[in-house]
Write a structure and sequence with these properties.
6-stranded mixed beta sheet, alpha+beta
């Protein structure tokens, strides 16, 4: 029995459960294309939008090689790949899920303060937060955070713990990218009405204060796509703190001031806040 045999067994079990899988080689990278498919000479899969192997028998086209077909997974080219593999990966989007890959402790802390609770899988340096529903993948949506779903792959590290939550707009908004705006001097802030009426979710006043401070930091540290960052941050703050009435005019003013310091106009701040409330049904 070779060391890689358990990996193929895991892959077959996952495939039987409907999870499209593929092997990863050293460095946690996909295997390179075969000679027939090198440099996508074969044309690849149409638009590379679906999971499954190409017509050649190799483990080709990275995430698009992911499959649930046991015949493919046990074919000679794949058997050879499993002997060299170091771990099993899967295509989240084809499985109908989205993985928020949190690469370090700071990213995990941000997620706990910002994102809806869901199933969590521990990784070597951080955590995978898994949501039900697919979306476009995007790397580096903020420091230490990647979105892995359609046209991407993620390592299989176990089933995780917790109940999987349906993908919400606050997560989808992380992948929004728009051009940064110019940077005029900050203007006077006209703060919109606060949201009231929900039950308070804050454990202590420090919980809200920490959330606002982290939101200010997220906006201040943005190096590009400032407008999208401001919207995502407003969306996250409202999702976590916006329904109980504890969010004061002073808190909102701090967020608007941080945004204007990065070049957002007062009108853009109000529009982003209003759009975030609308997206959350407030």
């Amino acid at each position: 029995m070779t060391q890689q045999t358990p990996l193929r067994r895991v892959a077959l079990n996952l495939a039987a459960a409907g999870l499209p899988v593929l092997p990863l080689r050293a460095g946690k990278a996909p295997f390179g294309n075969c000679r027939q498919c090198a440099d996508n000479a074969c044309g690849g899969r149409p638009n590379m939008k679906t999971a499954g192997p190409c017509r050649c028998p190799g483990v080709c086209h990275a995430w698009a090689a992911a499959t649930t077909d046991p015949t493919v997974l046990t074919s000679p080219p794949w058997t050879a790949a499993w002997r060299r593999a170091v771990c099993v990966a899967y295509h989240p989007g084809a499985a109908g899920v989205t993985v928020v890959d949190l690469d370090d402790a700071a990213a995990v802390t941000w997620a706990r303060e910002t994102l809806p609770a869901t199933r969590i899988v521990e990784t070597t340096r951080g955590e995978h937060w898994i949501y039900r529903g697919a979306m476009p993948s995007h790397n580096a949506v903020r420091p230490g955070v990647d979105i892995k779903s359609s046209m991407s792959y993620a390592r299989w590290l176990g089933p995780g713990t917790g109940t999987m939550t349906t993908l919400l707009d606050v997560v989808r908004a992380l992948a929004v990218k728009t051009p940064a705006t110019a940077r005029p001097a900050p203007q006077g802030v006209s703060v919109p009405a606060r949201v009231r009426g929900g039950g308070c979710r804050h454990r202590t006043p420090a919980y809200l204060e920490r959330g606002i401070a982290m939101a200010e930091q997220s906006i201040t540290e943005a190096r590009s796509a400032v407008h999208a960052t401001v919207y995502r941050t407003f969306l996250a703050v409202l999702s976590t703190h916006g329904r109980c009435g504890c969010l004061t005019d002073a808190h909102i003013s701090r967020l608007f001031t941080a945004a204007q310091t990065k070049g957002e106009s007062a009108r853009h701040c109000v529009n982003a806040w209003t759009n975030a409330r609308t997206a959350l049904g407030m």
